[in-house]
């Protein structure tokens, strides 16, 4: 599942055609021996430089890759942070090991722990954060190509992103299906919600097998949409709330290395990566290529750095800072205020004791986040 915490964004511009031997050697010699030079897209490897690139009109396709860290300010724990992470607080379920709660084979034999946890974390109890609404603002501006998310909290959808805007790599609570291969009857979010909050183990009305939300458990295949080919057309990649250490999600950045369709072998496709994070780390999508100084890596400080920008802050603060530089800050804050007011209004109409207590559990620091 997700591996992330309170992280912000890195930006990178990179060459493609990585899988062509000639280009591989050319880039390898350039990066490791200093032969040749990489064309810079940014005037400065800073958030200001990124903002200028977006405002220039040359940045038309932005992809966001997000993890649990963009939802922590909403009150949803990430998975592996010491003491506060989800896995650190599962002792009450008497699991053989923490990850068992998301193992498909364990779930089929012992579904109770998962559904008890699901009641605590169920969609509708939390509000989207500034990060979620910043992504929605990118869509409103016609700049968002896709949002790839590791999260299962559906907050991207609550913020206004639609199915075609999202690649929910680890699935979603939005729909559920019977686990029986011969049945696979689909159930709605409301149906599953009623079962979970009545403390009933959801059973298929057709065959009486278990019904599971469409989140990807260990041992299950990723959604077919995960393999959508967006990255060759990406001008800017924004990475938020994920350490990019969990495969195959982390391997998505390797798709930056695909030559644009129809382009000649020597043609490279320029791209930019941004990552908001509380500290700088060097990430390599492919360990072997990383050892060679090539492919998927983020280089923030060397003399050869030309594509990577790390903005050291929380995710929400990073989005606010970038929005400010773009002249969008007031619009973003107004969007957050408006959408949260609508959620609160809807929440007040719900019966006491029902799920969906967004006002009760959502972060009160959505416009001025605290982490």
TrEMBL record:
The protein's Enzyme Commission number: 2.3.1.286
Signal peptide: 1-19
Subcellular location: Nucleus
The protein's name: NAD-dependent protein deacetylase
Residue span, Deacetylase sirtuin-type domain: 40-329
Region (Disordered): 339-371
Protein family according to the UniProt entry: Belongs to the sirtuin family. Class I subfamily.
Active site residues of this protein: 170 (proton acceptor)
Cofactor-binding details, from the entry: Binds 1 zinc ion per subunit.
Extent of Basic and acidic residues compositional bias: 339-352
Functional description taken from the UniProt entry: NAD-dependent protein deacetylase.
Binding site for Zn(2+): 178, 183, 204, 207
GO biological process: one example: regulation of multicellular organismal process
Organism: Oryzias latipes (Japanese rice fish)
Sites where the protein binds NAD(+): 68-72, 78-80, 150-153, 242-243
InterPro entries: DHS-like_NAD/FAD-binding_dom, NAD-dep_sirtuin_deacylases, Sirtuin, Sirtuin_cat_small_dom_sf, Sirtuin_class_I, Ssirtuin_cat_dom
Any one of the GO CC terms: nucleus
PANTHER family: NAD-DEPENDENT PROTEIN DEACETYLASE SIRTUIN-2, NAD-DEPENDENT PROTEIN DEACYLASE SIRTUIN-5, MITOCHONDRIAL-RELATED
Reactions that this protein is recorded to catalyse: N(6)-acetyl-L-lysyl-[protein] + NAD(+) + H2O = 2''-O-acetyl-ADP-D-ribose + nicotinamide + L-lysyl-[protein]; N(6)-hexadecanoyl-L-lysyl-[protein] + NAD(+) + H2O = 2''-O-hexadecanoyl-ADP-D-ribose + nicotinamide + L-lysyl-[protein]; N(6)-tetradecanoyl-L-lysyl-[protein] + NAD(+) + H2O = 2''-O-tetradecanoyl-ADP-D-ribose + nicotinamide + L-lysyl-[protein]
GO molecular function: histone deacetylase activity, NAD-dependent; NAD+ binding; NAD-dependent protein demyristoylase activity; NAD-dependent protein depalmitoylase activity; zinc ion binding
């Amino acid at each position: 599942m997700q591996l992330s915490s309170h992280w912000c964004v890195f930006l990178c511009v990179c060459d493609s055609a990585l899988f062509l031997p000639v280009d591989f050697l050319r880039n390898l010699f350039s990066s490791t021996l200093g032969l040749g030079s990489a064309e810079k897209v940014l005037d400065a490897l800073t958030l200001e430089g990124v903002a200028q690139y977006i405002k220039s009109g040359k940045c038309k396709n932005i992809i966001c890759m997000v993890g649990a860290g963009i939802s922590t300010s909403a009150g949803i724990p990430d998975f592996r942070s010491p003491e506060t992470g989800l896995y650190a607080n599962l002792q009450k379920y008497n699991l053989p090991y923490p990850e068992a709660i998301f193992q498909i084979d364990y779930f089929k034999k012992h579904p109770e722990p998962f559904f008890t946890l699901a009641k605590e974390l169920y969609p509708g109890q939390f509000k989207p954060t500034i990060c979620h609404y910043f992504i929605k603002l990118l869509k409103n501006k016609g700049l968002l190509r896709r949002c790839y998310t590791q999260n299962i909290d559906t907050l991207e959808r609550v913020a206004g992103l639609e199915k075609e805007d999202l690649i929910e790599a680890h699935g979603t609570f939005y729909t559920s299906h019977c686990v029986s291969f011969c049945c696979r009857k689909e159930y709605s979010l409301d149906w599953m919600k009623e079962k979970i909050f009545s403390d009933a183990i959801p059973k298929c009305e057709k065959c009486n097998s278990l019904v599971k939300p469409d989140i990807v458990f260990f041992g299950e295949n990723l959604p077919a949409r995960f393999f959508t080919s967006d990255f060759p057309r990406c001008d800017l990649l924004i990475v938020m709330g994920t350490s990019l250490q969990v495969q195959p999600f982390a391997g998505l950045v390797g798709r930056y290395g695909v030559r644009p369709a129809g382009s000649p072998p020597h043609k490279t496709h320029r791209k930019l990566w941004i990552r908001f994070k509380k500290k700088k780390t060097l990430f390599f999508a492919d360990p072997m290529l990383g050892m060679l100084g090539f492919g998927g890596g983020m280089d923030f400080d060397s003399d050869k750095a030309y594509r990577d920008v790390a903005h050291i802050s929380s995710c929400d603060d990073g989005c606010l800072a970038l929005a400010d530089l773009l002249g969008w800050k007031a619009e973003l804050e107004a969007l957050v205020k408006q959408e949260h007011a609508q959620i609160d209004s809807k929440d007040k109409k719900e019966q006491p004791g029902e799920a969906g207590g967004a006002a009760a559990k959502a972060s009160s620091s959505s416009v001025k986040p605290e982490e």
